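A quick aside before the break. I want you to see a complete sequence-to-structure record at least once, exactly as it would be stored in a machine-readable document. Don't worry about memorizing anything.
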Amino acid sequence: MKALVCGAGIAGLTLAVRLLDQGWEVHVVDKAPGPRGQGYMIDFFGPGHEALTAMGLRPRLRQLAHPASEFSYVDGAGRRVTAVDYARFRKAAGGGLVSIMRPDLELLLREAVGDRATLQYGTTVESVEADGGSVTLSDGTRTTADLVVGADGIHSRVRSLVFGPERDHFRYLGMHTAAFVFEDEEVFRRMRDRFALTDTLHRQMGFYGLEQGRVAVFTVHRTGDPSLPADPRAALRREFEGLGPLVRRALDRCPPGEEVYYDQVAQIDAPRWRSGRVVLLGDAAHAVSLIAGQGASLGVGGAYVLAERLRVAGATGAAGAVATALAEYEQRWRPVAGEVQTRARQRVGEWFLPTSPARLLLRRWGLRAMNLPVLDRLLTGALFPAAHSTAVARAGE
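That is the input. The structure line, written in tokens, reads:
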């Protein structure tokens, strides 16, 4: 059995690992010229953490993770406004929570793939036949596969070719986001082992001290214009000017625009994830957006569920095993991703990026309440719903 996976990101590489373990031939293509160095620090927990544990990758995950002792909101000078011990989040996640740079999570998965698969950068899918069996790549190569996977992100080429144009599935949430890494010994010392976000309206910048004077930054700001700027660095300087000396230091040390990750904050609402031998995976199927905070975990978890359904269906030896597996994957995983998307739209947006002083104050009170007995379990429990892991735990049943 052969699989062509479009997208060498978190979801695509996870699926590649699982299919290789099952004896598949796997060809992975990605339009980027090589592994991406851009990305931000993420909290990785829930179904994704459970899946990597089942795959035997938890030790390496822990090795690549960064320690986090505190989550805080800070004023313009970097002074704490309110904070909570990060151990409370880890406890709420049952110990299954790590903080890791997104590029490092991809590194872990590339290592697990090793030389067992064909990994081809600078290439994408140019065309797909109706049943998905024959594919033309952007380098002119024609190939056939038993399974074609669109794991190529929120702006998926495969989704556009097979399921319709992006505008039919794209839900812009009124924000832009960016991420970069800069060097500053003073900011590093103050932010070491901490997540710190500016306590601001409509826009915020987050910091995490990595190592050797390096600081990871992510930004998010509200804007009614979904179009992306020609120069991300200049756009960030315009948008975040005036938020205080801490932000000023980050802006002064921001790398050139081509080295900055910059995109819209959006969701993908695709009514169909499968057609013939073609299936969508990860953000290509169900991007939940930055504000939901679980995109990487859902990408890994969904890939694990898909691979397990392919294994179970293939073991029956029945005709149409791939079609059966794709249907079962979508049936099991769509409600999980859909719930996260809905919650992000309804509640997380105002908590994540308040639009009024009253909501800003409410967020401060909410974070302070996490330091109180009983209330902390209620609030952190809402952030780490245990039910999301059920589909992963039962994927092979």
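Two observations worth writing down. The mean pLDDT is 90. The two ends are 22 Å apart (CA to CA). We'll return to this after the break.
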